[in-house]
Amino acid sequence: MKRSADVVIVGGGCMGASVAYHLTRRGVTDVVLLEREKLLATGSTGRNAGGVRHQFSNAANIRLSIESINLLERFADDVGQTIDFHQDGYLFLLSTDASVDTFRRNVALQRSLGVDVDWLDATAAAQAAPGLQTDGVLGATFCRRDGVADPNGVTMGFAKAAQAAGATIERDVEVTGIRVSGGRITGVETSKGAIDTPVVVNAAGPHARQIGRMAGVDVPVDPYRRHIFIAQAPPGSAHWRVPASRVLVIDFESTFYFHREGAGLLFGMGDKNETPTFDTTVQWDFLPQVIDVAVKRLPALADASISHAWAGLYEVTPDANPIIGAAAGVDGFFLINGFSGHGFQHSPAAGRILADVIAGRDPQFDLTPFAPARFAGAGAATGEKYMV
Ligand SMILES: Cc1cc2nc3c(=O)[nH]c(=O)nc-3n(C[C@H](O)[C@H](O)[C@H](O)COP(=O)(O)OP(=O)(O)OC[C@H]3O[C@@H](n4cnc5c(N)ncnc54)[C@H](O)[C@@H]3O)c2cc1C
């Protein structure tokens, strides 16, 4: 293993791989990415639903989406990897007057930034996702350039392109300590020896707080378990009443969501009673709660069998906005953490922005809403409201 590098990245999920890729594009190629698992993208990245949307409630997240989706659309050409990107749209269903008001304001914001979002009534929403039951739906929003993509493909695309440009990727290596001297990063300690470096990037997803502590920095990210269930089409059923496209439907009040996954259906829902945990054991007793909500919106699910399920961790900040930038108090320590359930889709832009910051370039992006220091002030009031 290399014993020195210009930059060490901790974590081989979509964030770490994106930072590595974008650093190499800026001429910073003496980069070592360390992943403690035997494979990349086995943390949150490998367990996510693949959803990609422009529809957020604050301008900074919408801007991250615009840039990220532009890159995802040209990913095969620019990065050299196919990513199974289906832009069949995201449909948000709204059932309370308060949500309708909020979404009307946010659609105006999204449109003001150039995003083409439609406002639908319940009938049009049902047409956008055949099989959907829209009882109680007061309105819906739909953006046809939203969609689903392959998180593993995106991560491997970034990682392979970074490697081809000179970056080193080490799997099965755990970072066990960060060396700081005189307020500056000087290196990392790992399960396979130390590496001298002036720059460390914390891209450890739900483990960001633990990596932060190694450098004496509090990174306010908590892990929350989220489940995904896979339903199989009933045998012999050519007319299963679910959308043929991969439109991603979200029932905003319950947070139940689904999209087609091969011949079956992927679905999930937030658990309002979940407290921070690193436990990713599937709680099968949560499934009946999800099914209760799910069959009201998509009755065809009642005929399906659940073939498998998994749980992963959201990396959640107090205001559900990410943390991107230099950590206060330790020179050379950079954070790309806390994406609160939407990190996969924002990894292309977030990695580009942090690479610019590290390389000393102007990232051309107002990072105030994502500033690591914001939690000392009133940042929580302006955070992201569409955490699903
Ligand atoms: C069920 C679920 C559904 C989701 N759906 C979506 C979605 O539809 N769209 C979306 O955009 N996002 C979604 N997300 C969120 C998204 O998956 C995350 O925001 C994103 O994957 C975070 O990427 P990351 O690279 O920061 O973290 P990770 O993928 O967790 O990568 C961090 C890596 O750091 C490694 N690591 C940790 N500690 C150490 C150490 N000490 N030494 C070395 N390596 C270490 C870990 O092994 C891990 O591989 C979902 C998440 C879950 C759980």
Give me the secondary-structure topology.
Blueprint: E1 7-10, H1 14-25, E2 31-34, E3 51-52, H2 59-73, H3 75-78, E4 90-94, H4 97-112, E5 118-120, H5 122-128, E6 139-143, E7 147-148, H6 151-164, E8 168-170, E9 175-181, E10 184-190, E11 193-196, E12 200-202, H7 208-214, E13 222-232, E14 248-251, E15 256-261, E16 264-268, H8 287-297, E17 305-316, E18 323-326, E19 333-337, H9 343-358
Parallel strand pairs: 1-2, 1-12, 2-8, 4-14, 12-19
Antiparallel strand pairs: 3-7, 4-6, 5-6, 9-10, 10-11, 13-16, 13-17, 14-15, 15-16, 18-19
Helix pairs in contact: 1-6, 1-9, 2-9
Question: Which tags fit this structure?
Answer:
2 domains, 388 residues, 19 strands, FAD/NAD(P)-binding domain, D-Amino Acid Oxidase, Chain A, domain 2, binds flavin-adenine dinucleotide, 25% strand, eight-stranded mixed β-sheet, 26% helix, alpha/beta
Structure classification: alpha/beta
**Total helical elements:** 9
What is the C-alpha radius of gyration, as a whole number of Å?
21 Å
Largest β-sheet summary: 8 strands, mixed
CATH topology of the largest domain: FAD/NAD(P)-binding domain
Task: Report strand %.
Answer: 15-25%
Commentary on this structure:
The chain is an alpha/beta fold and 388 residues long. It is built from 9 helices and 19 strands. Strand 1 (7-10), helix 1 (14-25) and strand 2 form a beta-alpha-beta unit. The protein folds into 2 domains: 7-50 and 151-221 and 318-382, 3-Layer(bba) Sandwich (FAD/NAD(P)-binding domain); 90-144 and 223-314, D-Amino Acid Oxidase, subunit A, domain 2 (D-Amino Acid Oxidase, Chain A, domain 2, 2-Layer Sandwich). The radius of gyration is 21 Å and the shape is globular. Bound molecules: flavin-adenine dinucleotide. Flavin-adenine dinucleotide binds at residues 10-16, 34-37, 42-45, 47-51, 174-175, 203-207, 226, 228, 312-315, 339, 341-345. The site of flavin-adenine dinucleotide (FAD) has 39 residues, from helix 1, strand 13, strand 17 and helix 9.
